[in-house]
Amino acid sequence: MDDSSHRRVSVAEAHRLLRDGKAVLVDVRETDEFRAGHAPGALHAPLSRALPGGRDMILVCRSGNRSRQAVALLAARGIAAVDVIGGMRDWAAQGLPVEDAYGVPGVVI
Fold first, then answer.
1. Annotated catalytic, 36?
2. Do the Cβ atoms of 96 and 58 come closer than 8 Å?
3. Which of 63, 61, 69, 11 shows the shortest CA–CA distance to 38?
């Protein structure tokens, strides 16, 4: 756990949890960022809007700042979630897939 007492996961752990069907990935970046490039299968719920609840969620943004804020907001509502350390920048840097709004290779902006 980090100093804010909210659980965080590495990109590798997030990828494993998603691959094993144990969680859903929620991208909390704004629409233009998400459309440019996101992890395949990620749900889009910008931090500037209300976030979904219910299922185990892994939250991701570009660098980890917004997803960490979103985890805190959800925790205040009693909803468990974790954020990805390093966000989509680290996701792409580790060679994991990134796709755009059309399902073809995208970029992290």
1. no
2. no
3. 61
The pTM score is 0.75
Catalytic pick among 14, 42, 60, 61: 61
> DSSP string spanning the chain?
--TTS--EE-HHHHHHHHHTTS-EEEE-S-HHHHHH-B-TT-EE--TTSPPP-SS-EEEE-SSSHHHHHHHHHHHHTT--EEEETTHHHHHHHTT---B-TTSSB----
- Show the domains of the chain with their CATH numbers: 8-93 (3.40.250.10)
pLDDT digits (tens, 9 = 90+) for 4-31: 567 899 999 999 999 999 999 999 999 9
Distance separating alpha carbons of residues 1 and 7, to the nearest angstrom: 5
